[in-house]
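A quick aside before the break. I want you to see a complete sequence-to-structure record at least once, exactly as it would be stored in a machine-readable document. Don't worry about memorizing anything.
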Amino acid sequence: MPDPKRPPSGSIPAAAGSIRTALSLVLAPLADALDDSLHPLDAVQRERMELARRSATALLSLVEGMLGSAPQSTPDASYAPTDLSAATREFVAMFRAAAALAGVELLVESEPLREPVHVDRRMWEKLLLALLNRALRSPDQQVTVRVRGTAEAAVLEVASATLDDDDEGEAIATARQVAAAHGGGLDLEGAGEGRSVARVTIPLGTTHLPRERLAPPVPPTPRRLPGTGERILVVAADPDLRAYLKGLVETRWGSDCAVDLATAVAAAGENGPDLILIDADAPAVDGLALARALRVDPRTKRVPMIMIAAAGQEREGEVGPDEYVGKPFSSRDLVSRIAAHLQLARVREEATRREQKARLDAEAANRAKDEFIAMISHELRTPLGAILIWAQLLRAEELDASATARAVGMIERSTKTLAQLIDDLLDVSRIIAGKLTFEARPVDLRFVVEAALDAAQAAAQAKGVAVERMIEAGVPPISGDAGRLQQVVGNLLANAIKFTPEGGRVEAALGRSGGSARIRVRDTGSGIRAEFLPFIFERFRQADTTSTRKQKGLGLGLAIARHIVELHGGSIEAESAGEGQGSTFTVTLPLSLRDEEAAAAGRSSDDDAAPAEATLSGVRILIVDDEEDAREAMVVLLQQAGAAVQSVGSAAEAMDLLRERPPDLLLSDIAMPGEDGYSLIRRVRSLAADRGGRIPAAALTAYATLEDRRKALLAGYNEHIPKPVDPLRLIATVASLVPAS
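That is the input. The structure line, written in tokens, reads:
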């Protein structure tokens, strides 16, 4: 028989919910008044309000006893492809400060997964929150969160101190429920030394998920940036509670109000809320159903939601609110929770923006890489094709003297083009690695500019471009690398000549401006578009990258020039009035040498300007190189210069000849099979002087960096000659190493 003193059980939830709402409107204002430091109560009023609060709290306790817990529902998720490593890392980062206060070292180890993992983002964060809350219960420890991938799954591991409830508890139950909703599972195991690991496994792919729950990655609806006026949508059927919540949130944010689903959807569509605050008690539809409906609407699908609910009304694990706040609530606590969710939403939005930007940047980088590979393939194949054709024609011996001369000239120019392309690529590689260095010494810029102009003269004459030089007298030397600075001026002159039509003019000038030297290269060529000018010094950037472009090249010269100038403490600028208006490049370098250093630089430059004529007559030279073609070319070149040459293909053969009769000079490659050039020179230097241990030696190698030069000299070589080498320079260098006798 039913108890006549107790109302029917079906009416208890509705009655208790209404009572809780009323008690919330009693307790919340009482708490505000009692905690208001700006308007303090007198002793009598405070005592009365304390009595009212105690009575309301006691009444609330009676109401809580009237309502039992409602059953849990099956999780209703929306699974979207997610970067699980990034999502976990960003979420856990928000707990670092709290962990530090508890003396906990919180570590995150996340490796990139091979593919996105389909998860419900909010359910995943609930799982993380449950495991972190559990792990952080023990102070003064280390908690490690790790995300890794296997062939078939993504694995989350949370390692912490072992707890008494490792086999049960709400946190583990919540995490296990979320894992199961994703087709995965959760295991607990001991890790030794009083530690345990909670391991969550989520399968990759989508075959284990309901097809109707799969969702494509959807960018969040754009909302106002922080500081531009965030708005809270308050949804409450009770007018007093609605008015109180509206006034509460408007102390910090803007607000809109709704009484049911229809008005909530209308308000959300009009203003786009940043957070939705929902009362669980509603006469037409309960708050959880209202939250579900708002989650389905694309305008509010990703908006944070907080539901004010009584005990038994919470439905953890379901699609709906992000957090429940119990009735009665503290106004301060509610405001802090709203602020926390808004902050989390801002973090998510910023992370999404960064992720989208990173994706766009990566796509742009991939396109640039593909364009560069296609470009370099073209630029390398063009001279190689010319070399191959002319070499085959020369082999056929069917060319007359004039055609043979053209063939030799074309092969020489194509080889120099290939060498320049390789040098540029190596320079860019060194720049990216931070390894492009130079040897600083006093440099007279007059000789740098003159040398670059002399080298560019042939190209200018072939194209019919006039080159004018204006070298101001009395410009003091600077501290720098003459070869690198000549490379800068040479790049600027080459570009000016390339983009100046026949009959045009290129002007190179050197002068002084205050405490700086200034080099200016001006042309009357095609000019630079205003929109491209800011990118002129970027790597691989060209104004025209189409297959019909008139000018060839990799777009590296100006980027290399800027880096070299900046290494010298200077700057480089580009100016142009637009297409067809020509362009001007200005290099500014600091004058930092003392008077005695400047005078020494001038004398050194004068000495370098008039080198003695080289001769190798009667000089016995031993060449060591494992490449037969390279050996043969060196032998022919040095024999034509008058030297007596022997060549071998290995270090062992070289040592045999050295023991028989030491030569006057040793030229050796570095990279050789079995025993390299470094080992060879060390063995040579270990010999007695009368057995060849002190003979001059030079490393002739394709290892061409300053570090390679340093290693060669430290190993025992007297000189380092990088390949490819100009024949005249090689002969002069070899002659300088041989004693006058």
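Two observations worth writing down. The mean pLDDT is 79. The first strand starts at residue 80 and ends at 82. We'll return to this after the break.
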